[in-house]
Amino acid sequence: MSKSRGQWGSKVGFILAASGSAIGLGNIVFFSANAYKFGGGAFYLPYLIALFVIGIPVMILEFGLGHQTRRAFPESMHKAAGKPGEFVGWWALMNACFIVFYYITILGWVLGMLIGAFGQLWQETTPLKGFAMDELANPHGYFFSMLSSWKPMIFVAIVWILNAILVRRGVATIEAAVKVFVPLMWIFMIVLIVRGITLENGFQGVWLLFTPNFEVMKDAAVWQGAFSQIFFTLSLGFGVMTAYASYLPKDSDQTSNALLTSLMNCGFEYIAGLAIFSILFAFAMVPAASTLSMMFFIVPTGISQMPGGDPMVMAFGLLFFLLLLLAGLSSSVSLVEGLASSLIDKFRISRAKAVGLFCIFGFVGSAMFTLPQVVNPGLENDGTLGLTLLDLVDHWAFSYGLLIVGLLECLLIGWAFGAKRLRAGVNSSSRFNLGSWYDWLIKLIIPALILYVLIVGIKGEFAGLYGSDYGPNYKDGFSWMVNSPQFILVGWFVLTVGASLIFTLRGKYSEGSQ
Ligand code: PHE
């Protein structure tokens, strides 16, 4: 079996792929938007603590698991902790499934913006048909007029086709792609930073990221934000890192792989923050509540004011959206690979069939988030850009799903499989030996921390369910959905748990398929 599963061609190939998965939209925009929301420097201490106390240890766990079992996430969790483990594995993938639906929708819009960056995006205004406001200043107008048309369906289809091409032969095609994408991403980012901090007043934005605020750290919301951000940005709690590590040769060093991947990811995230904050400061812009507004019109508006005339504006606009597209693609392929390899492992179907079926299904999923009916630009300032479906699903899958998976995987590996056993396996091929402190991190400390933020978060939901305040102004489109945000919560829960149960109970892993 293991012959047909394939293997990374080199350690560099693996590190590029794992860091390509980790570095994505989360690094370039969600980090900056979160940091801004929580007051800049107030965010990065909880973030750094989350990185070292939770992120790196959980990445060692996910890499170690894949490397030791040589299977995708559900089967490796099955081998480690039986059926309950497998259920958690599928549940992680079901959340990943929802996330990849809208992640690719967002990439479809990025592709649309990239095309716009050749010219249209920089016009003065764009008329908006069929909405309360007749026209909006660009790039606002361009973005919303694109959203209210059917064009993004085509862009989304293109992004799904690109994903299918990139994972069609598994690690072989992924490795070839990331060898080009990841170095390019770094180069583009460095060009953007140099431009950002050399703009007049640009450097001042950087201070915002370095001024800590200890007051805000008392707020549990900052910690929930930091923990979810760490899981998302490091691609943890999705089963992706386990799938990637299952293609590693026997003797590879998981501790150093995890350290390298995490530090590269967070280094990129940090410098992306410098680029974004310097552009925001140079042009005195305040990002609204939404992370997406940052990428779709705040930064582009900044770019449109860059000195050097039209050619410069166009060049930096293209660079920014191409950067987003490459970073997003090297992330989305890991999600598709994580899902496809799990289906291949369990149902013994061919790779071509698994990838083909999943990409068609995925397109339908992304189409739900792309429908012009689910968008209402009138709600731009409610923190969702009027993308209510995306926002509500994201809230549950992102802020809760990932953390719950993290909690359960630590408990199951820590207690059922045995943290000591996992550590022994990791240490056997690592240069740096993990001590017994690692066991207690996995068994107790990380679960306790995650549980704490989950409980505080859930208590907050009882005081007012997320999304319940969107209702009053929301008249068009899917108003039923917004008027009953419980519907999305129940829908997400029933669908993900139901599908995970079906996948766990159906079919059987072949014995000894090591
Ligand atoms: N880590 C990616 C980002 O920061 C998102 C992602 C999560 C990608 C999980 C793959 C798997 O954008």
UniProtKB/TrEMBL annotation:
Keyword Transmembrane helix found: yes
PROSITE patterns: NA_NEUROTRAN_SYMP_3 (PS50267)
Record-level GO cellular component terms: membrane
Membrane topology: Multi-pass membrane protein
Subcellular location: Membrane
Main localization category: membrane
TM ranges: 12-32, 44-67, 88-121, 141-166, 178-198, 226-249, 270-299, 311-333, 354-375, 395-419, 440-466, 486-505
Keywords: Membrane, Transmembrane, Transmembrane helix, Transport
Lineage top rank: taxon: Bacteria
Keyword Transmembrane helix in annotation: yes
Full protein name: Sodium-dependent transporter
